[in-house]
Amino acid sequence: MAKFEIRGLDDMMQALNALEVEEVAAKMLEESVPILEQEVKKEVSRHKDTGDMYESIGSTGARRNQRGYYICVRPTGYASAKKWRNARTKGGKRAGKKVRVRNMEKMVYLEYGTSKQRATPVLSRATRRAEKDVISKMQEVFNREVDGK
């Protein structure tokens, strides 16, 4: 029968237990999110009309839910006062009332399209392009935190 011996496993387990997972996860996200934010802005800049949506793109802080930590990169606020859309009633008739357009709503129209506009998946493309750099940055932060403790 084969016999083997593992050395150093106890040290590694102690180091992992001493590591503050909550702090490290938040740091990993905070330090890697500028890469994604920059890539999203680069993709959106191709579709810039007034620049309202482009300028409003930012990231939230690291937050935690039941699944773990996350950060959102998204546009916030409303389009400038010049951009309005007609509001519709439940019956589908135009109400004559004008409503300001949210920048996030413009992003959704850009990403998924409308009945009159072809979809241009800027978020999907930006996420794919930034994925490797974000993962390597997160790994770098993790290694730094593990080695530092």
Entry keywords:
5 helices; 16% strand; two-stranded antiparallel ribbon; HK97 gp10 family phage protein; 52% helix; alpha+beta; single chain; 149 residues
Describe the structure.
InterPro entries: HK97-gp10_tail. It comes from Mediterraneibacter gnavus. This is HK97 gp10 family phage protein. This protein has one domain (19-148). The strands form 3 sheets. Strands 1-4 form a two-stranded antiparallel sheet. The relative contact order is 0.17. The model has no long low-confidence stretch (mean pLDDT 82). Helix 2 packs antiparallel against helix 5. The chain has 5 helices and 6 strands, in the order H-H-H-E-E-E-E-E-E-H-H. The protein has helices at residues 9-18, 21-45, 52-56, 103-112, 122-148; strands at residues 57-59, 63-65, 68-70, 73-75, 84-88, 94-100. With 149 residues, the protein is α+β, with helices and mostly antiparallel strands. Strand 5 (84-88) and strand 6 form a beta hairpin. Helix content is 52%, strand content 16%. The longest helix has 27 residues, at 122-148.
| Adjacency order of strands in the biggest sheet | 1-4
> What is the N-to-C order of secondary-structure elements (H for helix, E for strand)?
HHHEEEEEEHH
Oligomer description? single chain
Helicity level: 40-55%
User: What number is the mean pLDDT?
Assistant: 82
Helical element count? Answer: 5
Rounded to an integer in angstroms, the radius of gyration calculated over CA atoms is: 22 Å
**Any idea how many domains?**
1
Strand content: 15-25%
Low-pLDDT stretches = none
Distance between the termini: 39 Å
Please identify the structural class as seen in this structure. alpha+beta
Number of beta strands: 6
**How would a crystallographer describe the biggest sheet?**
2 strands, antiparallel
Choose one word for the global shape.
elongated
Protein name: HK97 gp10 family phage protein
InterPro entries: HK97-gp10_tail
